[in-house]
Amino acid sequence: MESVKLKTNVNRLNGKIEIPGDKSISHRSVMFGAIAHGETTVTNFLPGEDCLSTISCFRKLGVRIEEENGKLRIYGAGFEGLSEPSELLDVGNSGTTIRLLMGILAGRPFFSTLVGDQSIGKRPMTRVTDPLKQMGAAIDARQNGAYTPIAIRGGNLTPIHYQLPVASAQVKSALILAGLQADGKTTILEPAETRDHTERMIRQFGGEIEKDNRVIMVEGGQKLTAQAVHVPGDISSAAFFLAAGAIVPESNITLKNVGLNPTRTGMIEVLRRMGANLELIQKNKDSYEPSGDLVIKTSNLTGTVIEGDIIPTLIDEIPIIALMATQANGTTVIKNAEELKVKETNRIDTVVEELQKLGAAIEATADGMIIHGNSRLTGGTVSSHGDHRIGMMLAIAALLCDGEVLLENPEAISVSYPNFFSHLNKLIQ
Ligand SMILES: O=C(O)C1=C[C@@H](OP(=O)(O)O)[C@@H](O)[C@H](O)C1
Ligand SMILES: C=C(OP(=O)(O)O)C(=O)O
């Protein structure tokens, strides 16, 4: 297994970086480009492994997708333009690809099989296959519909009224995409608000979707029209440098063009609560996906409690928030985050195991973790466990370590942030 020696004992981080495109919006731009009518262009698309898996699946479904100088062109011909794939649809490591794609395929009158990597093979799919079967799709999968491989033959869909058992934007989005193909109005009830990129993109592509508090309603049979999509930077990627800027001494970092959709900004709220020296310069307030610049400086942080409705708005940032908490004054408690157990890894276990190796005082709980602050981090051999966010969190942790740190399996990072190390090195110079 490959491993890299990480930079340790770093005295300061300084400079400006342009955060790469948002992963959630990049996936959706390809999907909406494919199901809309006409030529959609996408700029600042994230060329991470997960989004490349989405492109590859849609090509196998017969959609022409071209890339030139970082700009994508997607030639959509509506849902009807998709055709039966002759090969397996391989989603790689991407939960977003497989779950949203199932929503699209549920309404298509042909057969397809979805596969992914080892990590995808452990992630629960019943949360999507069950409601899609209720709508009329024929779906079978390993262990009674629970795990990949998944075989789908789409059907004539009937709308449902469905209360989501978990707060998940992936499940919500799969049902919206199926609902667009159903005969009537689909109603979805969320237990807590989750990222709303799918809803925003339906409107951007000329469609309609209603939202009343936590109830979402969408009519089937709408015709979507191709658009020019510009993807803002990914706040979940920016989070690693926000934390790094706050905890590495004498730092001052500017992060340009970061997506600021309010269903994604829980990390900013936590930084504020912890007392971070953070400045936000809002720019594209009125666009479908608002964005702006963030300036973070070394901060004197205080521990906090993170629980309840804020959790879905920072779910992917919890590994890096845990690291930040090891450097705060006092204790930080994270609750109601059991969804972390079904991500690329069990992120409660992998965060605790790897940070303990570096000397942090952190404990796992049934639904989160307890982190004691003011830890001096040492060194050792750590592993990403094949999880991009664990790999990046450990690379930021290493900056504070006074011993040597070796990271096993660093290549996982290219799932969401292929140029992560070049951005980090630029700030260290
Ligand atoms: O819809 C999306 O783009 C995502 C939703 C979240 O997953 P869940 O829907 O499983 O919470 C998040 O963790 C994932 O990184 C991306
Ligand atoms: C959970 C993640 O992604 P996905 O569910 O798409 O694999 C993530 O990016 O942290």
TrEMBL record:
Catalytic residues (positions): 316
Subcellular location: Cytoplasm
Keyword RNA-binding annotated: no
InterPro entries named among the record's database cross-references: Enolpyruvate_Tfrase_dom, Enolpyruvate_Tfrase_sf, EPSP_synthase, EPSP_synthase_CS, RNA3'P_cycl/enolpyr_Trfase_a/b
Pfam short name (any one): EPSP_synthase
Pathway entry: Metabolic intermediate biosynthesis; chorismate biosynthesis; chorismate from D-erythrose 4-phosphate and phosphoenolpyruvate: step 6/7
Domain Enolpyruvate transferase positions: 9-424
Entry binding sites for 3-phosphoshikimate: 23-24, 28, 168, 170, 316, 343
SUPFAM superfamilies: EPT/RTPC-like
Residues reported in the UniProt entry to bind phosphoenolpyruvate: 23, 95, 123, 170, 347, 389
Annotated family: Belongs to the EPSP synthase family.
Subunit structure: Monomer.
Superkingdom of the organism of origin: Bacteria
Annotated protein name in UniProt: 3-phosphoshikimate 1-carboxyvinyltransferase
Gene name, Swiss-Prot/TrEMBL: aroA_2
Catalytic activity entry: 3-phosphoshikimate + phosphoenolpyruvate = 5-O-(1-carboxyvinyl)-3-phosphoshikimate + phosphate
Keywords for the protein's UniProt record, in alphabetical order: Amino-acid biosynthesis, Aromatic amino acid biosynthesis, Cytoplasm, Transferase
CDD domains: EPSP_synthase
Role summary: Catalyzes the transfer of the enolpyruvyl moiety of phosphoenolpyruvate (PEP) to the 5-hydroxyl of shikimate-3-phosphate (S3P) to produce enolpyruvyl shikimate-3-phosphate and inorganic phosphate.
EC code(s) of this entry: 2.5.1.19
